[in-house]
């Protein structure tokens, strides 16, 4: 069950992800804009594998999906927070997102992106690995750091799960229903 279009990534696992991807290419590399998110997806699974006691995802997620199944939450409502990564300068992209979300009745919150091109070198050294500083574009690093900030916020606010999207997302029809279905089909030990 998918939620949005794939972004044409080179990674087979990323192509099979059920979430929406990017629909455009970046000007600086010509590569699909969402490719940088692959690193974010892999890091997400690595983080979940740590099984941090502060973030017992499966238990809270089962409770959230049970509320949907028991009719306490409408299946047409978005069952978990949806945060959209968007650069402050990309107002037009955010406006397009709002139109896209209105069509599917998705309540989403804008999440200010990290603009990788403006990060000072000392901050880059602090936040990314040696190899990443030399093999990733500033845009890729900014994208990763934006996703990482979403994870940090999810942890600090105690969310069982969140949906992190980028501002060039194209949603599949029945997004909320598909998301609820995906969440309800997760195995008990998925975290």
TrEMBL record:
UniProt xrefs under Pfam families: Glyco_transf_25 (PF01755)
CDD domains reported for this sequence: Glyco_transf_25
Glycosyl transferase family domain sequence ranges: 81-186
Name of the protein described by the UniProt record: Glycosyl transferase family 25 domain-containing protein
Biological source species: Polarella glacialis (Dinoflagellate)
């Amino acid at each position: 069950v998918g939620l949005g279009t794939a972004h044409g990534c080179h990674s087979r696992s990323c192509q099979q992800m059920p979430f929406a991807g990017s629909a455009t290419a970046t000007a600086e590399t010509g590569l699909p804009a969402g490719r940088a998110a692959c690193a974010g997806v892999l890091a997400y699974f690595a983080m979940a594998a740590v099984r941090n006691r502060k973030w017992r995802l499966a238990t809270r997620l089962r409770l959230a999906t049970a509320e949907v199944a028991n009719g306490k939450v409408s299946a047409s409502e978005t069952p978990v927070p949806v945060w959209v990564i968007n650069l402050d300068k990309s107002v037009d992209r955010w406006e397009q997102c709002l139109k896209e979300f209105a069509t599917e009745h998705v309540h989403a919150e804008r999440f200010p992106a990290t603009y990788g091109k403006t990060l000072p070198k000392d901050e880059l050294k602090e936040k990314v690995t040696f190899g990443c500083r030399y093999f990733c574009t500033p845009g890729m690093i900014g994208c990763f750091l934006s996703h990482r900030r979403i994870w940090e916020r999810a942890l600090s606010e105690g969310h069982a799960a969140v949906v992190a999207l980028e501002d060039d997302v194209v949603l599949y029809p029945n997004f909320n229903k598909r998301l609820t279905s995906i969440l309800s089909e997760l195995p008990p030990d998925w975290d």
